[in-house]
Amino acid sequence: MNIDNLSGFQFESFVAIVLRRAGYKNVRLAKKTNDLGADIFIGKNILVECKHKKQVGRPVLQKLQGAMLHFKRNKGMIVTSGTFTKGAKEYKPENIELINGKQLRKICEDNNIIILNGKIQVITNKAITHPDRKEIKKLITSQLKKIKGFQKANIKTEYDYIPAYLVRYNIHEYKDFTAINGMTGKELEHLEYYFKEKPKTEKRKIKEQYEYTEEELIEKAKEIITKKHTETTIYKGSNNQTYQRQTKPKTTDITIFEAIPLYLPIIRNEIKIKKEVYEQEILAKGDDLLYLENELGECSITKRKPKIFRTLYLNKEGKITCWFHKKGFF
User: Fold this and answer.
1) Residue 299 and residue 306 in contact, taking contact as beta carbons nearer than 8 Å
2) What is the pLDDT of residue 309?
3) 73-83, pLDDT tens digit by residue?
4) Where are the domains of the chain?
5) How many Cα atoms occupy the beta-carbon half-sphere of 274 within 13 Å?
6) 190 in the Ramachandran plot: left (φ > 0), alpha (ψ -120 to 50) or beta?
7) Given phi > 0 = left and psi -120 to 50 = alpha, else beta, which region is 180?
8) How far is CA 210 from the centre of its chain?
9) In sequence order, which residues have a C-beta less than 8 Å from that of residue 71 and are 6 or more positions away?
10) pLDDT tens digits for range 138-175
11) Per-residue pLDDT for 70 more than 70?
């Protein structure tokens, strides 16, 4: 783990990410203008001071104690890339935890955190739960049985996984979330479907990898959040001319309190009926399925769901048609 080239501010961001990955909730970086011995806030009780230096002495602990009184926090933590002096260790009160460079490396190892050139690589085995192949086959079979004339089909199911980075944030006391595609760096679609409620996850071995580091994804998220909360006001001046004024939030206005890497499953089904092949593309969140494409539910001629006579029919070649095309009206 090489973090020697990080600046003080970069080390603080690094520690915040490590703490989130280690299971701490509501981890927030303090504003950079703060010089009261507080670099990171955790929840409502814990204050963290980060020191990217070889040795940390007793004065740093005393400064943190003052910050804890100022911010009304019960617990403190000092994280360093180096070591603590004998004086610091002897002075340490019970409500302050000391984490040295060796312990920091151990936390990274225990939480599968890999650092290259001072940056945290995104590695996770968590995926949103989804139906297995047996359940999918049962679901498709129930859909096929509703088609008049159906007898049998060959079903092939494949799973793809999108590496996602979920970010929950606070801006001007307004809480919201976004999620970044870990391969493209762009905001994901269908955010409400996936993340309005906390999704259940399960462990899976997945080959798709993240192309961006955690720090890069955090910056991408801040760019998206800034754009989302930028407001444009149109007004007329005293000269009766129309003007535009843009109000753009600062990055210091954005507080990220949760960042979670996880994979989003996409189910792709290929259903062969006689000479015809039909495709389905489904987003999955547990048993809640969102169909992006479902050729089983539409007339293969119009490529639309029937609106009047909703029953679908299967001809001798395996083509699915609506009532009108079955009767030869079109």
Assistant:
1) yes
2) 58
3) 999 999 999 99
4) 8-118, 132-159+273-326, 160-263
5) 10
6) left
7) beta
8) 12
9) 36, 38, 41, 47
10) 999 999 998 888 889 999 999 999 999 999 999 988 89
11) yes
Neighbours of 174 (CB within 10 A): 8
Structure-model confidence comparison of residues 236 and 177, the more confident one: 177
Q: How far apart are CA 310 and CA 131, in angstroms?
A: 27
pLDDT of residue 330: 40
| HEC secondary structure over the chain | CCCCCCCHHHHHHHHHHHHHHCCCCCEEECCCCCCCCCCEEECCCEEEEEECCCEECHHHHHHHHHHHHHHCCCEEEEEECCEECHHHHHHCCCCEEEECHHHHHHHHHHCCCEEECCEEECCCCEEECCCCHHHHHHHHHHHHCCCECCCCCEEEEEEEEEEEEEEEEEECCEEEEEEEECCCCCECCCHHHHHCCCCCEEECCCCCCCCCEHHHHHHHHHHHHHHHCCEEEEEECCCCCEEEEEECCCHHHEEEEEEEEEEEEEEEEEEEECCEEEEEEEEEECCEEEEEEEHHHCECCCCECCCCCCCCEECCCCCEECHHHHCCCC
Distance from chain centroid for Cα 37: 30
Max intra-chain CA distance, the chain: 92
* Predicted confidence (pLDDT) per residue in 109-118, tens digit: 888 788 877 6
Per-residue pLDDT at 64? 95
Report the pLDDT value the prediction gives residue 268, as an integer from 0 to 100.
97
Cβ(303)–Cβ(185) below 8 Å: no
**Class of domain 8-118 (CATH, top level):** alpha beta
Residues 193-252 pLDDT 10s: 999 888 999 999 898 889 999 889 999 999 999 999 998 988 888 888 888 888 888 887
What span, in angstroms and rounded, lies between the C-alpha atoms of 33 and 175?
A: 23
pTM, two decimal places:
0.77
CB 320, CB 278: distance < 8 Å: yes
